[in-house]
User: Fold this.
Amino acid sequence: MTASELAVRIRNREQCVGYWVVLDAPVATERLARLGYDYVALDGQHGLIGNAGLLSNLMAIDAGGRSVGIVRVESGDPAVIGRALDFGAGGVIVPLVDTAEDAASAVSAARYPGKGRRSYGPMRSMLRIGPTPAEADDSVLVLAMIETPAGLANIEAICATPGLDGVYVGPSDLCLAVGGRFPNDPDVADVFEAALEKVRTTAASAGIAAGIHNPTGEQAARRLAEGFTFATVASDLVHLEQAAAAHLKAVRRV
Assistant:
């Protein structure tokens, strides 16, 4: 799948499934990118991946040949967004979006003059995305994370932001935002589910995509059935630990 093909599917609210990577391990990332996920997201905010790692892992995803690499950037700083896109990301997930102004700033940082203020210097991305500004603008996704009390309160205005392709729920932070003492706090489960419904229905009314992070494929399937249009399964580090623990348990059982 190409970046432009993923952009069309996301913007058309077609169901897409991705995988989440936090480790700077390009060989492993390449193998994951061969499995058939629509996209592989690199975590540049909480993951263990620096600038050089983002570049090498995006190259690994492209080498895998089946998924589009996108990046959860560390902030909405235009320089950070521009660098991820210049490296060849097919889109950015922007954290801590509190207002429509935050969302508009992210959109502007990802679009070239005429639609935004992205500086032209696609050192690697021009090999796969674009290379003309208009082509790049059409191919690059901008997704705003909804994970704070302000973001939830301003969800209607955020979803109405011109040029924003979708919103993306960070469930751990959103659970804290609605009063949870920790992620998945059962005491706020009903409030949390109501918040998710608000996000996905508001996005649907605005005609944009709604995505969510998930710990398992089973939960991702549930969220898609509820009305989210794309879902990510997380993550390489967690799954590595789970697989190793399961094998150890099997050996010791015998």
Summary: The first helix runs from residue 3 to 11. The beta strands are 16-21, 39-43, 68-72, 91-94, 141-146, 166-169, 209-214, 230-233. The chain has twelve helices and eight strands. The radius of gyration is 18 Å.
